[in-house]
């Protein structure tokens, strides 16, 4: 058994189980939220924080945890994260207090952050350069498969068991990850890693990320022009600038700025942000389209979206093979162009489109995103020194978290702006009773997620008219949002021209 410790593919299997926990939890909880709200008598704000607390903790700690892995060994941090994730998941399932649940979700986010960058650090240190792309391809397939399984598994568990089981399911997977890690993972600590911590850098970076993600979460409700939103964004920028100044002078910085001297690594980081912007923005609003416009259940909607995640599962290992042969540039550029085409195709849907009309575009989107995920990850992790693999992994994961939050927030703002332009005009044109300020605001809020603001007792003919107006306004907003996402993907194709292969792995890799 000792001879198997550090075996690349067994190590990959162990870390894949840990990454599966984080990816599965990112989507499974959204399905359980209505049941949690009802069972614990939670307010809307409370139930939003069940998701937001996890997201904030994850985004803020990823790079710092990656640095911990570089300093103390990725295996140690990974195992601590797996144990903590299991314990916090079990605690969430056992609690009957929404405030305690939110606190445990913060812990779950921190422990989840211990799993993602350390997994990439272990892969980087374990696989030789010629096998790294294939390993990252398998890693990408696991992320896609877990993301796809979340809504379906969550829906089935809530429907046939209870919401607590959505958290208990993490326990056996996490225990298996710990056992596999103890058996097969080899310590990755290196003699030339930093021996001290950049505490001011940690505080400044964590503060900047917290303020940024907080502003993005709150902006849809408060408004992008609201003083609070602008204040948080300004504070995030100020903290970010102070962080850059600190890192340029620190002897052992948290995030060495020399990493960004590599145009390929910098491009890969922005590409990962763009990928998440397009992926999570598309999935978020297509969920409303399928459920609220077409009336599908959450599970049925998740099944309809399987071509997206399913083809990412298939495409990620294939992308690893292509990148091994041709380098990351051609697959990334082709993937971004394919992604743009799929987003423009989704922009062509209307209220009369059948739910099956999305299948081709979802499949095309999955095939486009796969080489970007694998290629951008390889470009980031592969172009960093081995002793900075954890920081690079944290950078990759942070870019994905911020990109996803940015996608839902920015596309939501675009959608709301378009919806505001057309909804009131069409309501008046249909000679419906005028809506007061509060009524109009509530109606627009409902329409922004594809729900028709039909009150009980409304005559059938009037209800049909209101539904047509609401769904039409929603579709106009969604069209514009997908066009914007498509333009972002086209910009990503141009940026992909700056990518190149990662450097050769220096020492520590087990050649296979």
What do these coordinates show?
The protein has 512 residues and is mainly α. The chain contains 17 helices and no strands. Helix 1 packs parallel to helix 5, helix 2 (44-72) runs parallel beside helix 4 (98-126) and helix 2 (44-72) packs antiparallel against helix 15. It is globular and about 75 Å long. The two termini are 17 Å apart. Mean pLDDT is 84; it is low at 504-512.
Compact description:
This protein is mainly α and 512 residues long. The protein is 78% helix and 0% strand.
| Order of helical and strand elements | HHHHHHHHHHHHHHHHH
Please state roughly what percent of the residues sit in beta strands, choosing from under 5%, 5-15%, 15-25%, 25-35%, 35-45% or over 45%: under 5%
Distance between the termini: 17 Å
Total strands:
0
Largest sheet: none
Which radius of gyration do the C-alpha atoms yield? 23 Å
- Would you tell me the structural class of the helices and strands? mainly alpha
Mean pLDDT metric: 84
| Oligomer category | single chain
Q: Could you name the ranges where pLDDT drops below 50 across 5 or more consecutive residues?
A: 504-512
The percent of residues in helical segments reads over 70%
Can you tell me the overall shape? globular
Counted by DSSP, the helix tally is 17
